[in-house]
Amino acid sequence: MEASEGKSKKQGASRLCCLCNQRRPVLKRPKTLQQICKECFYEVFEEEIHQVIVKNGLFKSGERVAIGASGGKDSTVLAYVLSELNRRHSYGLDLFLLSIDEGITGYRDDSLETVKRNELQYGLPLQILSYKDLYGWTMDDIVKMIGLKNNCTFCGVFRRQALDRGAALLKVDKLVTGHNADDIAETVLLNILRGDIARLSRCTSFTTGEDGPIPRCKPFKYTYEKEIVIYPSLLNHFLSTRMLISRSWTTSPPNVSIYSPNAYRGFAREFIKDLERLRPRAILDIIKSGEDFRIATTTKMPEQGTCERCGYISSQKWCKACVLLDGLNRGLPKMGIGRARGGVNGDHQKETKKPASAARSLESKQCGSLDF
């Protein structure tokens, strides 16, 4: 009888949250496999992000910070959590939403509606910039010319620069993105497979681009993608003390471009997911490996300079965006694909005059306004 009662008490205890030991668990946490209640999940989820911000000095009081907002799950949760932590812990930040419209019909136009709702819900000013305004091209136009094989090169390069230009227009001190632990682990693998030593040395940093126009921060560096999905899903059942996060992204198109079904990153993503199923800790282990890589002192790293055409940071005479844009405007879209082999950053540069002032502000000079 006593043995039976002891067994019953033990079973009852095992049904309690392993953190608070008071409430019944509602999920097994993907990162640690702990059985926890929703209240403890919110607490540890937000506290881990807060500790990343504080311990790594991502922000200073009084800074203006732009949140890269795509309307997907990562940026939507990031905007909500960062605004909550800013209020709760008195970071003293002025927060803004910054969105880039690549011009992909049926994909970006829908997700931008989510961002506009976020603007109203969170009370954060929103700035939207489009490829059409900046470069004179939409991704739909580019795909019609280049096809599906290499279009990700254009989109990635243009988007990266567009975010910096938008941040310059907002006059912010930092730009934060929703890159999560899964994304960073994928990037570590991709840089190893490509032999990209320069990017491998910085892809695991909390803050990158300190030597560029706008530093970029990644508060979600150790946050698992699965937990980002769980966070707003459970939040709908916990509205007594919290504001509802917009969940329209769950019915919107997936947060993967319709033009990138066979992107190289997709294969790394599938590999990471397979590893996670076998051992959840694998994602953090890959990130830790990337952090511990040491680049040999004899390795020649690219020298940072500025683009002669638009003033953007570049290790070549022309930045990648200007090279790609020049090819599009000349009807030679594949001219800037792959590693530099002369061309625009080689022989063609000899035909162009160097501007009197190579370094101009991103705010005053845009690629889309240049005469190629």
Short descriptors:
single chain; alpha/beta; two-stranded antiparallel ribbon; 13 helices; 10 strands; 43% helix; globular; disordered C terminus; tRNA_thiolation_TtcA_Ctu1; RNA-binding; EC 2.7.7.-
Characterise this structure.
43% of the residues lie in helices and 9% in strands. With 372 residues, it is α/β, with parallel strands linked by helices. Strand 4 (94-101), helix 4 (108-122) and strand 5 (126-130) form a beta-alpha-beta unit. The chain is globular.
Assembly classification: single chain
Mean model confidence by pLDDT: 81
Secondary structure tally, helices: 13
Give a short account of the largest sheet. 6 strands, mixed
Counted beta strands: 10
Helix content: 40-55%
* CA-based gyration radius: 23 Å
The secondary-structure class comes to alpha/beta
Name the shape in a single word. globular
SSE order = HEEHEHEHEHHHEHHEEHHHEEH
Strand order of the largest sheet: 5-4-3-6-8-7
N- and C-termini, Cα separation = 88 Å
Any low-confidence stretches, pLDDT <50, length ≥5? 237-244, 247-254, 347-372
Q: What is the percentage of strand-forming residues?
A: 5-15%
